[in-house]
Predict the 3D structure of the following.
Amino acid sequence: MKKFIISLSILLIGSTFCMYAQSNKQNKVTTTETYRPVYHFTPDSMWMNDPNGLVYYKGVYHLFYQYYPHATVWGPMHWGHATSHDLVHWKHLPIALYPDSLGYIFSGSAVVDYNNTSGLGTKNNPPLVAIFAYDNPVLANSGSNKFQYIGMAYSLDNGKTWTKYAKNPIVHNPGVRDFRDSKVIWDTQIHQWIMTIAAGDEVQFYASSNLLHWTFQSGFGKSIGAHGGVWECPDLFPLKVNGGKQTKWVLLVSINPGGPNGGSATQYFVGNFNGHQFTPSDTQTRWIDYGKDDYAGVTWSDIPVKDGRRIFLGWMSNWQYGTQVPTVKWRSAMTFPRTLSLVKDNGSYVLESRPIREIAKLHAKSVTIKPLQITGMKNITTSVPFALSPMEMNITFHVGTKTENRFGIQLSNDMNEKLIVGYDAVKKQLFVDRRKSGIVSFSPDFPAIVTAPCVLKNHQLKLHILIDAASIEVFAQNRTTVLTDIFFPTKPYNQLSLFVKNSTISVNHFQMWQLQ
Ligand code: FRU
């Protein structure tokens, strides 16, 4: 079959760069849509940050999000709303929660109150309950420390419309400036609701039998973990270790600034939770994603037991430059949803993140590249037309016995813009180099080599990569090391190359899927 080089194929297929696959906007191609992802969630227009109120009910995944409908920069927060039947195709819905006299609607969670413990619905029609933070700008300006507190709203029509609880707030501020981002779970061990709240640079746990009245249990984190900034958007949930019988609790805590590559990032702790207190298994600081662009991520509530997954979604940006990225009509996307699992590796508990299996629904054609040896730089050609975005890639590098210096993958265009995903064998680091990836000058914090510690196993580096119009998510070494980074080339990348410096390297597994 005739060989096309990838750059040619891109022209043949037409640019996916401006295409917008969210359900109500098919085929809409305008210049304001440049960088619109094809399979990552974005708001239809205007500003979005954290995912909020992730909940599954009656076959529908709900995604609420921090939303400012009047500008493409942060402003008085609302909860935007979208729903999906498969976590892949999303439908935009009207704004769910508007600011009111108690304040802006900051981040929080949602649960199905199946037993109607709150009395806000009935057993036959259980309420969906959203538990969010209020941020009161009037109190903040008056110099009070108590301008953030926790409120509630409920829906009796499957999440379509919401009523604010008449006796808000449900948790008063104990005198902590940053007191927000309530995440609620039903603790099946001791049959009570547990709320985790970020409070300064620690978290606080509260318990309740009815979602309305909450009692402080304990604080966690003052002397453990990263403390380069305030703690935000916690999430607490149990996971089976290696899918077996043992259960450990995972506590996610986002931090801004103070991430491993600067700005915002999400750390996690693994330990035990007895309904009152969280006890970590060790004092190690771990990061769910080393990339610069995965923040405020939390997991879905009420995924059916027979499904059993713990599904995570993060905001794919960074507070260092989130309000400056060069999109016109909207700002920010979410990560692709990920399934989290817990593995015990060398006596230590580690989270594995993998793209949800529903990604297979997006698979169009697949291309397998035969095993190959690389010396220097090698441009990859495919036997069928293949665009570099949107796509999914699995690739395994075999480094032999000699220690190669640096090797990896380069995406580039004829503007000499390039994005590099590589491994530095001397530093034992995986990296994404976006210094020359395209438009980078909007913030001094954007051009960067983003790194993650990463040790080769059996002389191999296994990468699973998701690429969309303006993002790359790299899952390495069985997906325990993750790097998520955004980029803005002035023209789509149309050349894929593999490279190695100072050595020869072999690639023994290399498969790509076009996504649609
Ligand atoms: C995290 C965060 C939250 C807060 C929200 C405000 O990105 O700062 O702590 O609730 O964003 O939009």
